[in-house]
């Protein structure tokens, strides 16, 4: 059993719940139309929103299967960093408590993904 199994399952659950509900309550289309299109991604906002959420679903499946972990991690980290830049940074650090909608959650997910991607740490052979 891989030492990252619990982290992979936890991140997969987070990615799935963050994505799947929006597929059934119009949340993804709203994110594309009401946010992404409004901040300059028009007319591609809905396409981008669906691409982001589908990438989360694919990454979750790959994490559970323990396949293509680095690819899934890099794509998801890119999405999370873009989320920080476009949404969370201006709100500050805290998701709740000392603020609202901040970047702390994305930061934690990025660090956990890096730990999953590089379970033996960082060295000259890490990127292989």
Automatic annotation (TrEMBL):
Signal peptide: none annotated. The lineage of its organism: Bacteria, Pseudomonadati, Bacteroidota, Flavobacteriia, Flavobacteriales. It is a multi-pass membrane protein. The chain crosses the membrane at residues 5-24, 44-64, 71-89, 105-122. Pfam families: DoxX (PF07681). It is found in: Cell membrane. Its main location: membrane. Keywords: Cell membrane, Membrane, Transmembrane, Transmembrane helix. It comes from the Bacteria. This is DoxX family protein. The keyword Oxidoreductase does not apply. Belongs to the DoxX family. InterPro entries: DoxX, DoxX-like_oxidoreductase.
